[in-house]
Design brief:
Helix content is 30%, strand content 18%. By secondary structure, it is α+β, with helices and mostly antiparallel strands.
């Protein structure tokens, strides 16, 4: 057992200060990921600052017509929210695909976004890992990497981000509000580069307060490919939000957002494919060309090249189904 200090502050400012002033401190929300990492010996905090009672846990309409989700909102509550299910079905679908009911009852919205990778080498303190201990190497490149990144990785790290929710929020163009700033969800995460131990751009002691969803596009969907149907992390997942010009009768794409999960260090916005599809009707030929162009930048390892086929097929099937009359 490792001794640690447990604190439950009365307000957000005090909570942020308690962590900012102590390099060994961590925020504690639902604890579904942090406690696991502590049990494995990956995380050894000297101080836990419980923020579960100082953060908002509600889902509210915004004046602009979107939704604001408090960072302490349990995943189960968010997935079941009637407004979210009706207007942002991809988000609800992603949450329900993410974990068991027991975990969803505990896991929070803010904590879900800050999950750490499930790479086997990261989770095993007896193995080297640049993400856990900078400078020790990335044995996954030559070892077990079947579930790891094919896009945006570096020679220092090929880990993937495990959150289903983050993928759906990326396709919604969600904004993350912290105790210091607001930023797009896709700007929250850092590429692995030469210092993959830093997962996000957040400063130590910077607290996620809420996630804001802009007004939704008319059609959205989340799909996930995994080794088993129950409580497994994605090999590849996809969230799509789509708006078609049906008034003119052309069916041209007004706006499309495509985010891939299980393939990179963060939810991967398929910006190349989005740009190629915008402004014209979706045809099988155009969709295939857009998917191929997006995946040209992939750099798979020998054991995970199959993910490119999965990603291509998910793009074709999911966008194609959403675009159907």
């Amino acid at each position: 057992m490792n001794e640690l200090e447990y604190l439950r502050p009365d307000d957000q400012a005090h909570a942020a200060a308690l962590v900012a002033d102590d390099p060994g401190a961590r925020f504690l929300g639902g604890g579904t990921n942090l406690i696991d990492l502590m049990k494995l010996g990956v995380e050894r905090p000297e101080r836990l600052v419980d923020v579960s009672r100082v953060l908002d846990a509600g889902v509210k309409q915004t004046p602009a017509g979107g939704l604001r989700v408090g960072a302490a909102t349990p995943n189960s509550d968010l997935a079941a929210d009637p407004g979210l299910r009706a207007r942002y079905p991809a988000v609800s679908q992603a949450l329900l695909a993410g974990a068991s009911g027991q975990l969803r009852n505990m896991a929070t919205t803010g904590g879900n976004l800050l999950q750490r990778t499930r790479c086997l080498y990261f989770q095993d303190p007896t193995k080297p890992c640049n993400k856990r201990e900078p400078g020790t190497g990335c044995p996954a490149r030559e070892g077990e990497h079947r579930g790891l990144a094919v896009l945006g990785a570096s020679e220092h790290c090929v880990a993937t981000h495990p959150s289903d929710l983050a993928v759906a929020l990326a396709a919604c163009d969600a904004v993350v509000h912290t105790s210091r700033r607001s930023l797009r969800l896709t700007e929250l995460y850092r590429p692995p580069g030469e210092d993959p131990h830093r997962d996000t751009v957040l400063d130590h002691g910077e607290l996620i307060l809420a996630v804001e969803l802009p007004p939704p596009l008319p059609r959205s969907r989340y799909r996930k490919v995994r080794d088993r149907a129950s409580f497994s992390f994605a090999l590849v997942s996809i969230a799509v939000a789509l708006d078609l010009d049906l008034d003119a009768g052309t069916g041209a794409v007004r706006e499309v957002r495509i985010a891939l999960g299980g393939v990179a260090h963060q939810p991967w916005r398929a910006s190349t494919a989005e740009a190629m599809l915008t402004g014209a009707p979706i045809t099988p030929e155009a969709l295939a060309a857009a998917a191929e162009a997006e995946l040209e930048q992939a750099r798979p390892l020998p054991g995970n090249a199959f993910k490119l086929t999965l990603a291509r097929n998910l793009i074709l099937d999911t966008v194609g189904e959403l675009a159907a009359p």
